[in-house]
Design a protein that fits this description.
Shape: elongated
Structural class: alpha/beta
Number of helices: 10
Distance between the termini: 24 Å
Helix content: 25-40%
Strand order of the largest sheet: 3-2-1-4-5-7-6
Largest sheet: 7 strands, mixed
Length: 270
């Protein structure tokens, strides 16, 4: 079962670019990660109350914030923190939380079969082009009764910025994301039981467009898509973007909406 083709102009970004971008952002990430904190806390709250993992994996651990949160929640468990960006791991490891810090890819986990009771992944899997492979690897690595809990992003994320750029030129300026019905279809066909799967919007507000774009760059989540324009953004095009985005302004500021997917899946007990 394959995922639907991406829109014209290319698919999801190359993982080497993702790894390099997030490695560069390791030192600035935590200072601008309010959305990531909020989403991760909501994902933690969705874990089954009776879950007591012997071993957990923080998949796409970033700076390790939620590795440390998982260590507090499950103090007798063994923790593994994994990220594709080695710069993030270098930042996270001295801060603790997990017993192991591993560079790896969610589509090809460097872990043994049936070796974890919980796979926790917050706002990382949107960078994986093959979500079916992610689910297949989760099913392989989880022990019977184990849980995959993830948050990700779907189509509609940063729609205000996308629409504003669309009014300026035809280039890809905003990262593309999977459709929510693709998440539904792939999760339902994964062999894992779907305990919860929903999309909840989160809107942040900014005084101006530059505040938003600077934050995306500090997060390492600025435009990484194939088809993006090369070189510097011209002054005239930037002014046109600012004018287009102003049409979305609300009393709170300029909105940036994220369509956040939350999923909790469980592996069956043989």
């Amino acid at each position: 079962m394959s995922e639907r083709p991406q829109a014209a102009g290319g698919g999801l970004p190359d993982k080497r670019q993702v790894a390099a971008s997030f490695s560069r952002a390791a030192e600035s990430y935590d200072s601008v990660a309010a959305l990531q904190r909020s989403v991760g806390l909501q994902l933690l709250a969705q874990l089954p109350a009776a879950l007591r993992p012997q071993r957990w994996l923080d998949l796409g651990c970033g700076t390790g914030h939620f590795s440390r949160a998982l260590a507090v929640r499950f103090p007798t468990s063994q923790g593994v923190a994994l990220d594709i960006a080695e710069g993030m791991l270098r930042h996270a490891q001295p801060l603790g939380g997990a017993q192991q810090f591993i560079a790896g890819d969610a589509e090809h986990l460097p872990l043994q079969n049936a070796s974890c009771d919980l796979l926790f992944s917050s706002l990382a899997l949107q960078w994986c082009a093959d979500f079916q492979a992610v689910l297949r690897e989760a099913e392989r690595v989880l022990r019977p009764g184990g849980v995959l809990a993830f948050s990700s992003l779907c189509v509609g994320t940063l729609q205000e910025l996308r629409d504003s750029w669309q009014a300026v030129d035809g280039f890809v300026h905003v990262n593309r994301f999977r459709h929510f019905d693709d998440y539904q279809r792939l999760c339902e066909g994964s062999g894992l039981a779907v305990l919860n799967l929903q999309v909840l919007p989160e809107t942040l507000y900014y005084p101006d467009v530059r505040s938003l774009t600077h934050e995306l760059k500090a997060l390492g989540a600025h435009n990484l898509n194939p088809g993006r324009p090369g070189g510097l953004t011209g002054r005239a095009r930037m002014l046109a973007l600012l004018n287009a985005y102003e049409q979305f302004r609300l009393p709170q500021g300029l909105p940036a909406t994220y369509q956040v997917v939350y999923g909790v899946l469980r592996k069956g007990v043989a």
